[in-house]
C-alpha cells in the first residue's frame, strides 16, 4: 500500500514461558481486530486485567471494515478514542442511489442536529486498529501478546486452559473467562464444537481501494445497472488519504484469479471514472459472503463476539459495528460477574440480547442482498420497478434497499429489561434502547454532552422530584451496587430543551441507564422499591 506502512509489534515471550506461574487471568481475549481490541479497552476501563492473544504482529491489510456508525463511535468515545477516530476518518451522512444513469433516491442518516458523534465515519480498518492498539498499549491492565496463536482449548467449571504456540515454542495459560474474537473462520469456535450455520450467497464482488484526487462529495453512492457496469451494481465511498473504496458486483461466474489482476481492475475503474482518470490501485480483494451465526454466544466460560459469532454481507456496514456492540454489551456484565456483584447467569443475557441483534442484522443484510442481487426474473422485475418509481414517487423510495445501514437493535423481550408501566412519547429512549445523547450544560455554564456524564456504572437520570423511600420503607434494603444520580437542573442543565424532548420528561421522569448506556427502565414517579427491583433485574438477581 502506498499510503500506509503497517506497524510491526514486537514479539515477547509470555511470563509463563519464563517460569512465572500466574493465577488464572481474569479474561483472555483471542484476536486483536477491532472487536477484540475494543473488548480489552472496555474491560480495562472497568478495572479488569486482560491478556490479548493474536497470531499476527501487525494490523489488518486493506480497508476491510470501513464504515463506523454513530452508536459504535459512542462506544469508542466512552473508551477515550471516539473523537480521535471521528477526526481521523471521513464523516458522512448522505447517501444517493442511482438506477442506470439517474439518481432515484437520497437519504440522510442524521437529519436532526445536536449529536456529538456523526452518523457515519469512513476509515480504513488498519488506521482504526492502529489507534485502538496504541490506546491499549497505554494501559497497565492490558497485556498485548503478538504472534501468540491459540491451538488448544479445554475448560471446566472454574477455568479455561489454553495452549498457545509462539516463535519460541508452546506454553499453556489459564483464564477465568475467554472472549473469542478470532473472526469468521474462528478456531476457538471449532475447538468448542459450535455450529456456524446460515446462508451462503452465490455471487462475487470486487473491492478496489483506489488512490486518486477527486471532487466527488463525501457521500455514499450506489448504482444499480449503471452504464459503466451494465447488469450489475457498484458502490463508491471516500476514505482517508485520498483513497476511494469502489465495489463492483461481478456475478457468480466470474473467475476470482482473473478478476484480481491489476489490468482487469484498472479497466473496470477507468470505465467508471472515464478514460482520462488519474488513479493508482491501493488494494484489491475478491469476496463471496454469507449470513450465518453461532447457535449460542456463550459456551461455558468461552464467549463469542464479532465475526466469530455472526457473519453478514458487507451491505449496510453491519459487521464491525455489530461486533463492537457485542463487546459493549458483554464487558460490563463480565466485570459484574468477576466482582461478585452479579451471578454468572447474567452472562446468559449476553446471548439473549446480542443473538437478537445478530438475527436483526442477518435479516436486514439478507434483504439487502436479495434486492441488490435478485435471484430470478420476477425479483429483478420487482426491483427495477421500485427503482423506476422512486424517481418520481415518494412511496417507493423506502422500498429501495442498497444496504440498510447499521442501527442499534432494541433489546425487546430481554429478561433483564424492565418494560414500561407509564406512558412516554419517546420511542428512541424506550427500555432496551441505547440512551440518546443530547447537549447539556453544567450549572457553571460549561457545555458538554449527556453521554459523557453517565460514567461506567448504573446511572439514574432524574427530572423533577428525587425518588426516595417512603417512611414505611425507610429501612428497606440498599441498592445492590452504587448508582450515580444525575438530576436535571441540579447536576445538568437542559438549556436548549433537547434532552427534555428526546426523553419526554414532562416535568417528571426517572431513567435507569445501564453501564453500556442502554436504558434498563423508566418511570414517571417511581418508588425506591421499584428502582431496586429494576436494578436487581438488570443484574439477573432474583
Class by SSE composition: alpha+beta
Number of helices: 12
Low-pLDDT runs of 5+ residues are none
* CATH C-level class of one domain: Alpha Beta
The mean pLDDT is 93
Distance between the termini: 55 Å
Q: How much helicity do the residues have? A: 25-40%
CATH 2nd-level architecture of one domain: 3-Layer(bba) Sandwich
Number of strands: 27
According to CATH, the fold-level topology of one domain is FAD/NAD(P)-binding domain
- Strand proportion: 25-35%
Q: Evaluate the radius of gyration.
A: 24 Å
Query: Superfamily at the CATH H level of one domain?
Result: FAD/NAD(P)-binding domain
The largest sheet is: 8 strands, mixed
General shape: globular
Verbal overview:
The structure is a single chain. The longest helix has 25 residues, at 348-372. Helix 1 runs parallel beside helix 4 (125-137) and helix 1 runs parallel beside helix 8 (319-338). The protein has 542 residues and is α+β, with helices and mostly antiparallel strands. It has 12 helices and 27 strands. It is globular and about 75 Å long. The strands form 6 sheets. Strands 1, 2, 8, 9, 10, 11, 19 and 20 form an 8-stranded mixed β-sheet that branches. The model has no long low-confidence stretch (mean pLDDT 93). Among the domains are: 15-90 and 112-197 and 292-366, FAD/NAD(P)-binding domain (3-Layer(bba) Sandwich), CATH 3.50.50.60; 427-538, Glutaredoxin (3-Layer(aba) Sandwich), CATH 3.40.30.120.
Amino acid at each position: 500500500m502506498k499510503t500506509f506502512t503497517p506497524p510491526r509489534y514486537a514479539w515477547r515471550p509470555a511470563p509463563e514461558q519464563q517460569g512465572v506461574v500466574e493465577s488464572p487471568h481474569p479474561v483472555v481475549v483471542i484476536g486483536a481486530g477491532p472487536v477484540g481490541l475494543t473488548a480489552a479497552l472496555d474491560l480495562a476501563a472497568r478495572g479488569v486485567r486482560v491478556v490479548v492473544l493474536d497470531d499476527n504482529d501487525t494490523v489488518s491489510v486493506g480497508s476491510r471494515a470501513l464504515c463506523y456508525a454513530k452508536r459504535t463511535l459512542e462506544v469508542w468515545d466512552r473508551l477515550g478514542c471516539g473523537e480521535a477516530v471521528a477526526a481521523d476518518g471521513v464523516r458522512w451522512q448522505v447517501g444517493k442511489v442511482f438506477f442506470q444513469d439517474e439518481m432515484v433516491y437520497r437519504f440522510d442518516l442524521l437529519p436532526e442536529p445536536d449529536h456529538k458523534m456523526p452518523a457515519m465515519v469512513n476509515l480504513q480498518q488498519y488506521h482504526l486498529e492502529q489507534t485502538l492498539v496504541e490506546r491499549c498499549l497505554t494501559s497497565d491492565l492490558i497485556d498485548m501478546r503478538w504472534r501468540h496463536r491459540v491451538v488448544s482449548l479445554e475448560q471446566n467449571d472454574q477455568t479455561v486452559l489454553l495452549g498457545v504456540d509462539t516463535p519460541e515454542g508452546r506454553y499453556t495459560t489459564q483464564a477465568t473467562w475467554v472472549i473469542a474474537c478470532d473472526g469468521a473462520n474462528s478456531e476457538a469456535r471449532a475447538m468448542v464444537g459450535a455450529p456456524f450455520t446460515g446462508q451462503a450467497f452465490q455471487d462475487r464482488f470486487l473491492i478496489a481501494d483506489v488512490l486518486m484526487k477527486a471532487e466527488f462529495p463525501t457521500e455514499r453512492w450506489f448504482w444499480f445497472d449503471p452504464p459503466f457496469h451494465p447488469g450489475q451494481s457498484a458502490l463508491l465511498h471516500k476514505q482517508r488519504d485520498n483513497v476511494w473504496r469502489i465495489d463492483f458486483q461481478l456475478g457468480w461466474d466470474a473467475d476470482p484469479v482473473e478478476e484480481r489482476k491489476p489490468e482487469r481492475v484498472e479497466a473496470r475503474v477507468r470505465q467508471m471514472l472515464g478514460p482520462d482518470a488519474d488513479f493508482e490501485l491501493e488494494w484489491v480483494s475478491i469476496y463471496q459472503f454469507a449470513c450465518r451465526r453461532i447457535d449460542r454466544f456463550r459456551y461455558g466460560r468461552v464467549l463469542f463476539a464479532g465475526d466469530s459469532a455472526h457473519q453478514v454481507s458487507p451491505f449496510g456496514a453491519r459487521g464491525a459495528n455489530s461486533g463492537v456492540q457485542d463487546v459493549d454489551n458483554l464487558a460490563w456484565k463480565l466485570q459484574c460477574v468477576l466482582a461478585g456483584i452479579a451471578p454468572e447467569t447474567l452472562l446468559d443475557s449476553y446471548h439473549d440480547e446480542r443473538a437478537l441483534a445478530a438475527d436483526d442484522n442477518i435479516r436486514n443484510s439478507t434483504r439487502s442482498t436479495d434486492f441488490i442481487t435478485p435471484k430470478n426474473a420476477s425479483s429483478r422485475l420487482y426491483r427495477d420497478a421500485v427503482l423506476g418509481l422512486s424517481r418520481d414517487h415518494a412511496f417507493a423510495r423506502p422500498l429501495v434497499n442498497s444496504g440498510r445501514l447499521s442501527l442499534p437493535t432494541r433489546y425487546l423481550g430481554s429478561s433483564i429489561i424492565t418494560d414500561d408501566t407509564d406512558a412516554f412519547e419517546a420511542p428512541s429512549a424506550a427500555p432496551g434502547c441505547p440512551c440518546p445523547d443530547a447537549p447539556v450544560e453544567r450549572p457553571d455554564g460549561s457545555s458538554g454532552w449527556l453521554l459523557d456524564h453517565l460514567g461506567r456504572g448504573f446511572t439514574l437520570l432524574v427530572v423533577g422530584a428525587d425518588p426516595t423511600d417512603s417512611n414505611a420503607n425507610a429501612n428497606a434494603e440498599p441498592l445492590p451496587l452504587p448508582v450515580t444520580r444525575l438530576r436535571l437542573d441540579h447536576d445538568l442543565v437542559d438549556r436548549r430543551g433537547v434532552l427534555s424532548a428526546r426523553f419526554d420528561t414532562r416535568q417528571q421522569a426517572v431513567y435507569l441507564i445501564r453501564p453500556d448506556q442502554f436504558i434498563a427502565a423508566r418511570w414517571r414517579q417511581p418508588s425506591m422499591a421499584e428502582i431496586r427491583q429494576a436494578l436487581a433485574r438488570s443484574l439477573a438477581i432474583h
